[in-house]
Amino acid sequence: MILETILSSISVDGIVNFAPMGMHLPDTDPGRSPVKRIVFRLYPGSQTYENLKATGQGVINFTDDVLVFVETALYSGCPPFVPSQKVRPPSMAHARTIWEFTVTCFDPSTEPAFLEGKIEHREQKGGFEGFCRAQGAVLEAAIAATRWQWLPIGKIIESWPLWLEVVEKTGGNREQHAFNKVGNFLGEKGIQVPRIPWDGRKASL
Ligand SMILES: Cc1cc2nc3c(=O)[nH]c(=O)nc-3n(C[C@H](O)[C@H](O)[C@H](O)COP(=O)(O)O)c2cc1C
């Protein structure tokens, strides 16, 4: 199973970074002891890749706020953060759950690189608030946008109306704002996609 998370890391100079990353987890039976080891597959070129390779610590932040995914993936956004317990990178102040980890293996010989981490500390801060289909659609659009240079443009253009319909129908303020920000990002890259008519309300990190 892959869970979409916000990974915080820190550079050798102490600069904090947040970015969405898919965490690979083994399937476990409910009720079994919690997962102790996690895996990430990291493409070279990201700050997260450099930080984890150099400083070997991170925090996995679980959030259902898709605006944070879009801001950190496409706009170098930095959400409010608080100090961690066992590692140097801080955690997202509004994460629902956080897992602090240390890197036990970083293998850059494959692409994407293979990273294995050991969970050092866990904290549950908030409960599950239910699925919203718009959140999935925003994540799909955002991940496609981070790969705009490699994906065939037709693939994004073809999928866009379906994502837009789901976000317009089922999304709230933050989901719709986040989706339009993905559209703005693509527009800046010369990929024109329709936006959801926006009523001017603002949502911020
Ligand atoms: C939902 C989502 C999941 C992502 N998962 C990964 C991943 O597993 N591995 C990866 O290398 N990039 C992944 N990305 C792309 C990075 O988040 C993106 O390249 C980002 O700009 C890296 O930021 P950084 O340079 O601050 O580390 C994902 C993006 C999104 C939106």
Explain what the structure shows.
By secondary structure, this protein is an alpha+beta fold. It has two domains: 2-124, Pnp Oxidase, Chain A; 133-188, no CATH class. The chain is 32% helix and 28% strand. It contains five helices and eight strands, in the order E-E-E-H-E-H-E-E-E-E-H-H-H. It has helices spanning 47-55, 66-74, 133-146, 153-170, 173-188, and strands spanning 2-10, 16-24, 37-42, 57-62, 81-82, 91-92, 97-107, 113-124. The strands form two sheets. A six-stranded antiparallel beta barrel has the order 1-2-3-8-7-4. Strands 5-6 form a two-stranded antiparallel ribbon. A hairpin with an 8-residue loop joins strand 5 and strand 6 (91-92). Helix 2 runs parallel beside helix 3 (133-146) and helix 3 packs parallel to helix 5. The longest helix has 18 residues, at 153-170. It starts with a strand and ends in a 17-residue tail after the last helix. Flavin mononucleotide (FMN) binds at residues 4, 17, 19-22, 41-43, 46-48, 69, 73, 112, 139, 142-143, 146.
